[in-house]
Amino acid sequence: METGLTGRRAAVAAASRGLGFASARALAAEGARVAVCGRSKEHIEEAAARIGDRAVPLVADVSTPEGARRFVIDAREALGGLDVLVTNAGGPPPGTFETTPLDAYPPALALNLLSVVAMCQEAVPGMQAQRFGRVVAITSISVRQPIADLILSNTARAGVTGFLKTLAREVAGDGVTVNSVQPGSHATERLIEIYGRPTADGIPAGELGRPEDFGAVVAFLCSDPARFITGAALPVDGGAYAALL
After folding, report:
1. Any idea what DSSP says for residue 37?
2. Residue 161, SS3 per DSSP
3. What is the residue-wise DSSP string for 108-160?
4. H/E stretch holding 197
5. CA separation (Å) from 216 to 98, 181, 187, 222?
6. Across the strands, what pairs with 26?
7. Considering the chain, what percentage of its residues have pLDDT values greater than 90?
8. Range of lowest pLDDT (115-124, 126-135, 233-242)
């Protein structure tokens, strides 16, 4: 399949590891030039070297709206423009309603909601002007089915899904698509940090997701053949989500 990604300019946030890294590597494999960011200069340069010569490493902290906006500005300058934006960030600390104080919510919303809004506000107008753009947000299956002990993540990611759906409808006529991909349990560093030795219990596919497969889904949504897909929120979870809708 011809993806049309050769020569496209992509910014992938929080891409030093995990699903962000897998998405950036998949885009680069399809011929895109990719600006990737992380908070550690050493780690993001190492990640860019693993991706190859199409990757440009940038140091940025997307946990705040201003840091997220700055990443898009720097990526656009480094690449000479921007065609694709993949929003991503680490998750907030685990906790329940009982254990999570009110003052923990604003940083979580900044991390997983307002940072996405800021990146889109910086990137989308230019995409509209050039009549082409792809926005793909990495969120979580918790948007459909809240995950126990992750109340902050569940709350923030549900909010960003509402924002993305609204944005998708507003810019669809400008050649810009906006979608989100909702990972279930994948074999990433974050999953191990939270759960120690995660298992495939409850996953009909019988195994944890592979980050490289997830990255391929993101790359497809950024491709030319996906031009008629917008406003979608796609679960990538091995069948773990059980509801009909």
Report:
1. E
2. helix
3. HHIIIIIHHHHHHHHHHHHHHHHT-EEEEEE--GGGTSPPTTBHHHHHHHHHH
4. none
5. 38, 11, 15, 10
6. none
7. 84
8. 233-242
| Region of residue 131 (left: phi > 0; alpha: psi -120 to 50; beta: else) | left
185 close to 171: Cβ distance less than 8 angstroms: no
What is the number of alpha carbons within 13 Å of residue 196 lying toward its C-beta? 0
pTM across the whole model: 0.95
Distances in whole angstroms, Cα of residue 12 to Cα of each of 62, 199, 238: 11, 28, 24
State mean pLDDT over 149-178: 98
3-class DSSP state of 150: strand
For residues 156 and 137, give the distance between their C-alpha atoms in angstroms, rounded to a whole number: 13
What is the spatial distance between Cα 150 and Cα 99, in angstroms, rounded to a whole number? 11
DSSP string, 206-231: SSPBPHHHHHHHHHHHTSGGGTT--S
Which residues neighbour 222 within 8 Å (Cβ) at sequence distance 6 or greater?
3, 5, 8, 10, 27, 32, 84, 86, 134, 136
How many helical (H) and strand (E) elements, i.e. helices and strands, does the chain have? 8, 7
Q: What's the pLDDT band for 193 if we cut at 50, 70, 90?
A: low
Place of tokens 């550690």: 40
Give me 140's structure tokens. Answer: 């979580």
What letter does residue 39 receive in the DSSP assignment? S
State residue 185's pLDDT score: 80
Q: Are 65 and 121 in contact (CB under 8 A)?
A: no
Q: Which of the four pLDDT bands, split at 50, 70 and 90, describes residue 194?
A: low
Beta-bridged to residue 45, according to DSSP, are none
Structure tokens at 198: 């995660």
